Structures are given as structure tokens and as C-alpha cells.
Amino acid sequence: HQDNLLFLWSITVSIFGIGGLLGSSGSRYLTVKYGKKKCLLCNNLLMIVAASIMGCSKIAQSFEMILIGRFMCGISAGLCAPLHLQYVGEISPRKLRGFANSTSSFFWSLGKAVGQISGQRELLGSQSLWPMLMASCGLPALVQLVFLPFFPESPPYLLMRKGDQEGCKKAIRQLWGEDHHQAEIDDIMKEKSTMKNTKILSVLELMKEQAFRWQLYMIVILTATVQLCGINAV
After folding, report:
1. How far apart are the C-alpha atoms of 120 and 135, rounded to whole Å?
2. Is 167 exposed, middle or buried (0-12, 13-18, 19+ CB in 10 A)?
3. Contact 50, 57 (CB under 8 A)
4. Phi (first) and psi of residue 119, to 5 degrees
5. Tens of pLDDT along 73-103?
6. Residue 144 confidence (pLDDT) above 80
7. What letters, b where the CB count within 10 A reaches 16 and e where it falls short, cover 81-106?
């Protein structure tokens, strides 16, 4: 029935956001416990599995596989957004940190544009090729899965969470060269001592905290207006 088709279509579209909410909510716990590099590697595996499920949905004649794959993609994207920004920022030298973080927004936008273009009926959006389009999200995850093991764990994580000063120095030398990096290590130690005296707020505590009320309002308004600026229509 047409109403059932509309309902299934709506669920298929929106379930990505539900997965994204769950993924981003669990990102802090996972990064503290396992580290950013390990989380990114496991996240890539999750995305590849999700892409495979969606890519095989037409052969299996199962729309449920699309729902499951979209949900898993949402979880992966929700995990990846904060993980990627934190990892890139922490492994970048101080003079390139701002530039490295700004590239994330550029590639997010570029990825959306490539997806929109690839989804045209003349390309991968045709009746026969749409499974390839849905499975294409696994390609960048596969590339990262191949190359990320050659990168070290985040130096701040090694020093602040693991207490591994030698491992931190080794990671810094691998990332930034053999120069003297004691100043950067001292900065990480200062941050560690500051965090010991800082209470980490939960989402509910943050919403109740009066001191951060206006900052929270500003973030919510900015995020909401981005959705209304026409970017989705473009």
C-alpha cells in the first residue's frame, strides 16, 4: 500500500540520524577506554559491514537489509565525526592544527557533493546500479582501514590516559620528526593536571548548568540554521 511504502521510505531516511545520535553519544566512553586509533579502525570495519549489507540488499530482495545498513552507517558516522576531529587535531603539530581541523569541514562537504552527483540517474542512481551507490560508502572506510595502522596512537591519549611517556615521545617523533618536542609534551602534562581538577559534565548536567546556558543556546541555533540555509536543497 502507498502509505506503507511512504512509511518505510521515511524510516529508511531517518534511521541514519537515529544511529548517528547513538554513535555520537557513545564516542566519549569508547575513546577514553580504547583510544582514538582503535576506535577509528573498528569504526571502519562497521562501515564496511554496513556497506556490504546494503550492497547485497537487492540480490537478497530484502528492504530490511537497507534499514539495518543505514542504521549501522549512522552509528559509524556518529562515531566518526568527533573521533576524526579529535584524532586529526591531536596528531597535528601546533602550527598546522587549525588547518588540519578545518579540512574536516571541507571533506565533509566534498563527500556530500560527490554523493549527490553520484546519485544522479545518469550515473549510479539508476535502477540497476543503486546497490553500488549504497555500498560506495565502504570504499573510504577500506582506504582508511589499510593506511591507519601505519599511524601511531594519539600522543595526548598515550600520555594522559595510559601514562606512557616513552610511547608518547615515540609517537611525536614519528608524526612530527626528530626535533626537540619537550614544549609540546609539557603542554600535554599541563592539560592533564588541569583535567584532574575539572568535572566532566554529562549532557543532562550541561543542559542544567547556568554558566553554559548561552553558549548552549548559540550552538543549538547555529546547528539548526545550518539545516535551514538551503545546503540540503543544494
Report:
1. 15
2. middle
3. no
4. -80, 0
5. 999 999 988 888 888 888 888 788 888 888 8
6. yes
7. bbbbebbbebbbeeeeeeeeeeeeee
| Cβ contact 67:153 at 8 Å | no
d(CA 1, CA 113): 33
In DSSP notation, 82-104 reads HHHHHHHHHHS-GGGHHHHHHHH
- For 201, the 3-state DSSP assignment is coil
Residues in the chain: 234
Q: Measuring CA to CA, how many Å separate 193 from each of 21, 33, 196, 199, 207?
A: 31, 19, 5, 12, 26
Cell (9 digits) for 4 = 506503507
Residue 198 is classified by DSSP as: S
All domains of the chain, ordered by start, with CATH?
1-151 (1.20.1250.20), 201-233 (no CATH)
Residues 64, 15 contacting (CB under 8 angstroms):
no
